[in-house]
Amino acid sequence: QVQLQESGPGLVKPSETLSLTCSVSGGSISSFYWSWIRQPPGKGLEWIGYIYYSGSTNYNPSLKTRVSISLDTSKNQLSLKLSSVTAADTAVYYCARDREYCSGGSCYKYFDSWGQGTLVTVSS
Amino acid sequence: EIVMTQSPATLSVSPGERATLSCRASQSVSSRLAWYQQKPGQAPRLLIYGASTRATGIPARFSGSGSGTEFSLIISSLQSEDFAVYYCQQYHDWPPLTFGGGTKVEIK
Fold first, then answer.
1. Looking at the complex, does the CB of residue A105 fall below 8 Å from at least one CB of chain B?
2. A6-37, pLDDT tens digit by residue?
């Protein structure tokens, strides 16, 4: 059973860069897609972007100019950087395993394992 | 961007009763839809993918149906542990992958 654990500063100042790490255990980071998803307090879920084990990425257009996701396969970790943060970026940030595949003529892309999430507050 | 709309926002149901949650897409997503359950203070948990396939370990009282723009998640007999917020997610056209706003299932 793969397990994911987010870590990083819980408080970031406005205009600075939010940096989080997700450590993956119980399985290899290889051969999978990995996503970051966030949830502002009391609100719904927003997909931030994903990275494939090969290093290819895809981001939410609404965040694309500020976000970067990377992998460290030697450490079985993925990272998120979000620059120029404002109070609107205050949220619980989740990393998740992103299952993308095609089978029997149908294609799928869903999140089957999630970290517990980490709250990041943007405030001076 | 495909907008997912869930209704109702809150559903009050008595234990043992049936709950029907709806999810509507702004354009067809075929059967490329997943459902998640989220309890307070926890991460979402995958329930359904492919609109109707239960994820590993999900009880049979959870069922999904629909295609195109209209989808339903049915909980046939609500148990105490089922009171939570439920989200739908489309993966037909992305980026971005998009979620609905959620339906909270509360005890009546």
1. no
2. 999 999 999 999 999 999 999 989 889 999 99
